[in-house]
Amino acid sequence: MNAPLLAFNENGIYCAQAGVYLDPWKPVDKAIISHGHADHSRWGHKKYITHHSNVPIIKHRLGEIEVAGKAWNETFIINGVTFSFHPAGHIIGSSQIRVEYKGEVWVFTGDYKTEDDGVAVPYEVVKCTTFITECTFGLPAFKWLPQQQVITEINEWWQKNKEDGRTSVLFGYSLGKAQRLLKHLDPSIGKIYTHGAIENMTEVVRPLISMPPTIRVTRETKKEELKGNMVLAPPSAHGTPWIRKMVPYNTASASGWMAFRGARRRRAIDKGFVMSDHCDWQGLLSSIKATGCEKVICTHGYTDIFSRYLNEQGYDARTAETQYEGEMGELESKVESVDDVVPDEEKANIKVKPNKNNK
């Protein structure tokens, strides 16, 4: 029996024929990187290959590294194996990695979403025989609203806070979510201030996308300046002395996990907006169907539930353990049950806990 084109080992996803890894989680000689989030692009590899728009992002995060940038759909061959990057729609510079050898085609998605958010290059369907998919939100209860509806709600929330004389503090990942929010905030309502971590990353990606102007929050920034305006901050800033400068304020979080019952209350957030940089249940299923694949490997997320469902639909599906987190880093506590997100009428059909990668 022939060895699979891509195999999972203690270092990551390995292509033995080419001697390279895809998004490895331990230091290796050569790494092909899907995108810039820390769980997929780690420090310590000797050589990196990624899409050229991701190069400044990972250099900002990792420092001086040896990295080669490639264009969308540009093929490069390593020991007879053909590789190429294709838009994943997850965040700026995010890619699916296509791997072909002797007529066998695999696609590793990294993280992805199918809705065009106006920031990332939109997701592209890539035909393949084997599809490696995340399933961060691999439960039927996850159904995203159209982005424009969520953005409208966010801007209305900001306007109301301004009328009440309060600062709006909106939490989102420094890379990806923050720029997506910034792109669609309405600057006619007021000024947009940013936490240093978000401002630093936004400066890196500004050459790649048009966004409203921002003002960095510094020690010299006075609370009177912030009143009625918007402040974008990473989730880690919540509950720290830094946020005291915003008083009086209202807080909100933009995350797929805001679909959880009680998530806003547990995190002491005033408002939750359900917005994810990952596919919902239907997005995952439609993406898989469009590839025409026969085999599916489910990595981080609700892998057991999702792979079981795929098998019931006729796919050859299995799970694989990785060290990827998806949006799990936004949760403050481990998800032990699906009860928080599954409506009562659906609980009879789903009684499986998340994969242990959901940490």
Automatic annotation (TrEMBL):
Residues 328-359 are annotated as: Disordered. It comes from the Bacteria. InterPro entries: MBL, RibonucZ/Hydroxyglut_hydro, Xnuc_lig_assoc. Gene3D superfamilies: Ribonuclease Z/Hydroxyacylglutathione hydrolase-like. One of its GO terms (molecular function) is RNA endonuclease activity. NCBIfam families: Xnuc_lig_assoc. This is mRNA 3-end processing factor.
